[in-house]
Amino acid sequence: MQALEAPNLTFALEPASQALFEEMMPLLEANHDETEWAKDITLNPDWDAYLQLEAAGLLRVFTARVDEQLVGYAVFTVSSGIHHKQCLQAVHDIMFIAREHRGTGLRLIRFADAELEAEGTQIIFHSVKVSHDYSPILKRLGYEHVDTIWARRVSHGS
């Protein structure tokens, strides 16, 4: 897979691996601190589940790097739709760009969209947090508001 390059900035589709997860962890922690709705629930990614999705060919991890240092990521699961099995769909799991590189987000989404479309994906879904709303970027890219998610805490265990 060819990476899109700009001065010092590269985008790539990278295979999920323990090494990549370790590299992502500081950004995941910053993501959790900045955007998590239930901040009292400890960040504890299920890396084995991600590796299983990768092994099954269902995971896409898109990265943004400056001088090879990870500055952002967008993670999707890709599979046939449950309601439309003939339709390959990408569902956004998580996306984050380090604060000092926020201008990179639009380009990362464009890169991920192009890669997903090239592999035959027909629909791409993004879940956007109210506290970290990047809907204007998605609208600019032709996305439509099609769903709203509501949440309610029923337990306060960790």
If you had to describe this structure to a student in words, what would you say it looks like?
The chain has 158 residues and is α+β, with helices and mostly antiparallel strands. It has one domain: Aminopeptidase, CATH 3.40.630.30. It is 30% helix and 27% strand. It has 4 helices and 6 strands, in the order ββααβββαβα. Strands 1-2-3-4-5-6 form a 6-stranded mixed beta sheet, sandwiched between helices. A hairpin with a 7-residue loop joins strand 4 and strand 5 (88-97). The longest helix has 18 residues, at 18-35. The chain is globular. Residues 1-5 have low confidence and may be disordered.
Q: Low-confidence parts, pLDDT < 50 over ≥5 residues?
A: 1-5
Question: Major β-sheet, in short?
Answer: 6 strands, mixed
CATH class, anyone? Alpha Beta
Structural class by SSE content: alpha+beta
Percentage beta strand: 25-35%
CATH superfamily grouping: Gcn5-related N-acetyltransferase (GNAT)
Overall mean pLDDT stands at: 91
- Identify the strand order in the major beta sheet: 1-2-3-4-5-6
- N/C terminus separation: 40 Å
Please report the total strand number as a whole number: 6
CATH architecture: 3-Layer(aba) Sandwich
